[in-house]
Amino acid sequence: xxxxxxxxxxxxxxxxxxxxxxxxxxxxxxxxxxxxxxxxxxxxxxxxxxxxxxxxxxxxxxxxxxxxxxxxxxxxxxxxxxxxxxxxxxxxxxxxxxxxxxxxxxxxxxxxxxxxxxxxxxxxxxxxxxxxxxxxxxxxxxxxxxxxxxxxxxxxxxxxxxxxxx
Length: 166
Ligand SMILES: [Ca+2]
Hints:
By secondary structure, the protein is an alpha+beta fold. It is built from 3 helices and 9 strands. The chain has helices at residues 4-20, 42-45, 47-50, and strands at 26-28, 34-38, 64-65, 73-91, 103-108, 114-120, 129-133, 139-147, 156-165. Strands 1, 2, 3, 4, 5, 6, 7, 8 and 9 form a 9-stranded antiparallel β-sheet that branches. The radius of gyration is 15 Å and the shape is globular.
């Protein structure tokens, strides 16, 4: 695993490489290839306002928001196995971006055994775009984000994008 500063550097290097080298081709997983779930949804499961689908609706005006709990999580289930290259999170836009902290990015083949492949210590900043470059190769069918520190947390962000090698 690399430090955050290195991850940003790597992400920039990656973008530069992609611009000049077509051999490195990453592809965004489309929402039609995924289902999304979470430990909880804010305001007593108010999915119309805070539901998991708002994390993948390609709008930064809508947000997924969990309840307050110790280790809230959000999970993306793919229709098939992918080699995940990096994940981009669009943090909350209006305020309270610091609530996104100590987030483990875990990958699984079977929804049973998860392995941590990236970590964002944070705390995040409001309106921040966070990119987590995964160890290579990271192959999986499930991707889970989970807050791992503290007693009372809520997990929220406006959008998640997952990029894979095909
Ligand atoms: Ca959204």
